[in-house]
Amino acid sequence: MQGGQELDSGDSLSAFRDRFVIEDPNLIYLDGNSLGRLPKGTVEAVDRVMSQWGSSLVSGWREWYDLPQRLGAKIARLIGAEADEVVVCDSTSVNLFKLTVAALQVQADRPKVVTDDANFPSDVYVTVGAAVLTGKTEFDVVAVEDDVAAATSRIEAKLDGQTAVLTLSHALFRSGYVHDMARLTGGAHEVGALALWDLSHSVGALPIDLNHCGVDLAVGCTYKYVNGGPGAPAFLFVRRELQERMRTPIWGWFGQRNAFDFSLDYEPAAGVARFLAGTPPILSMAAVEPGIDLLLEAGLDRLREKSVAQTSFLIELVDEVLVPLGFQMITPRDVNRRGSHVSVTHPEAWRINQALIAEMKVIPDFRAPNVIRLGVTPLYTTFQELEEAIDRIRCVVTERRFEKYDVAKSAVT
Hints:
This protein is α/β, with parallel strands linked by helices. The protein has 13 helices and 13 strands. It has helices at about 5-10, 40-55, 60-65, 65-80, 90-105, 120-135, 150-160, 180-190, 210-215, 280-300, 300-320, 350-360, 385-400; strands spanning about 30, 85-90, 110-115, 140, 165-170, 195-200, 215-220, 235-240, 330, 340-345, 360-365, 365, 370-375. The longest helix has 23 residues, at about 300-320.
């Protein structure tokens, strides 16, 4: 196996690391799958909008008004969509609620919603809540968590003529398993159901082609691999052919056809803009754009090639160094079914994670009950960092450093 230094020397994306704020080069950051690093260009972009605010005051809205659509058109290039099928707005959960309710209303004669137990928990909360509000009486949560290899066939077995919507996460947050989007979307369509995907753990990390897969609806966040900043606005996708059939449950000013007529009668805007609601957070949206631009400049194919190489390298290191210490890898070895993070389990995962952060200058993240996720972000993660991180994890375990930490978990993990 080649070493990290040798692999870094052949990295065609290495120059992108210098375009991020990295204050401590000795800190190994492996949590970009939760919150990406700050692009240097973001500081300039936000400063520019703040200056516009200071000089132009309310007149700045002439430039800011269509920012949700302009950013959506750029994100469309990351997810295989058309420019008029994506808008940036609200949070992932709010967007999921809007699209789920709209889809269930369109599918009013079908009582069932299907998801799986590996979906992100808040996605399940939102979907169940939407189902209750729209009077859906059946909710199938397919058990796949302990056997993700069998996930596709188990989900397909639940799809039938009563199914209104199939809603899934593309890349699973715990294991990094990537669902077969084309096959499952096709399976939903065969029984007349709509397919709704959460792209939060895959957008910016691997190529996505929503239109090629025939996807109906999708949501995603921008603060992970897109590097849009903490709490950055999310996005939603509605297939062009569905847009005029669907209505958002949140009738807001920016989703009104002629907003500045100030009519009390609501008439949805044309196209995907009807899913906008309240006034967009312009400063936060300005912070999203530089991260999108970096991804488009690097190219998703090159990013995916490096991600595959780095997660494969990381898996080899886990097998060699960590498995003998009681760790177990739960991320798929099949690169076609793997996203951009590698997850390992250990009975002392929580305390090991705390020791890594407090003593070893390694920031992974913990997911209950016993998972440590090691996120690979190809724009700034190096092979040498991965190699060093595994060695520091080894030190924490072999030197029993984790034993000094409390088993009680903090509010944020």
